[in-house]
Amino acid sequence: MTERLTGRVALISGAASGMGASHARAFIAEGACVMIGDIADTAGQQLAAELGDRAAYIHLDVTSSRDWDAAVAETIRCFGKLDVLVNNAGILDGGPIGEYTEKQWQNVLSINLTGPFLGLTAARDALVAAAPAAVVNISSAAGIQGVPGVHAYTASKFGVRGLTKSAALELAPHGVRVNSVHPGGILTPMLGASSDATLDRGANPLARLGLPEEVTPLVVFLASTESSYCNGAEYVVDGGMTAGRA
Asked: How many domains does the chain have?
């Protein structure tokens, strides 16, 4: 193991399961310290215990600025600084226009879009103090192209893409890079698909769902100093979904 993140300290939201847990495991393997933030307390505590002394858990509701402030403060208390913020937490639901409710719309945007904004707000000063620092916002292939029936999710992921660019422009002079990652269909609890699920090749040339471990190496790269000239960009990991119809 090359330990590409040795000396780095990361706060990862939604890290108790799915892609977030994959990212946390890889960050630890690459030498980082990781604060696992999530609302799934039991799973988060178990993961932190599994990962050892360089990992800790804190309850983090990404829609709460108070929770974000506490998560940043606890990260610094435990590990001395904050170099990397990974805005990973998100939810998915859907429904046709005319039936999809305002409450559903607001709930998805509050988690998927306001959550990353609040994370950036809370972490901004700590990241600047630790510069060179990095923010990795997990968007989606739905932040690159429209997806029928999942209007709030698509809007929120396009919003994360835009927030990434505005934050990258603002924070670059302070030594903080901000990039977004855009996974396609990934086999996680959020998607609710089985491990043998296949996709139509017209929608995805590889005709399968991706694995969290196929997204994580890109997140590690963007969190590391290897990506020192990458800023304000979107990185797609979608099996070719957004390339066009096969």
From this structure: 1
Task: Give the model confidence (pLDDT) of 5-37 as tens digits.
Answer: 999 999 999 999 999 999 999 999 999 999 999
Annotation marks residue 57 as catalytic: no
- Helix or strand holding residue 133 (H, E): strand 133-138
Domain residues for 63? 9-243
Would residue 130 count as lying in a domain? yes
Model confidence pTM above 0.85: yes
Q: Once rounded to an integer, what is the mean pLDDT over residues 211-239?
A: 96
- Looking up residue 178, the CATH number of its domain turns out to be 3.40.50.720
The one-letter amino acid at 233: A
Q: In whole angstroms, give the CA distance from residue 133 to residue 171.
A: 10
What confidence tens digit (pLDDT) does each residue in 115-162 have? Answer: 999 999 999 999 999 999 999 999 999 999 999 999 999 999 999 999
Identified catalytic residue from 57, 100, 153, 229: 153
CB 119 within 8 A of CB 64: no
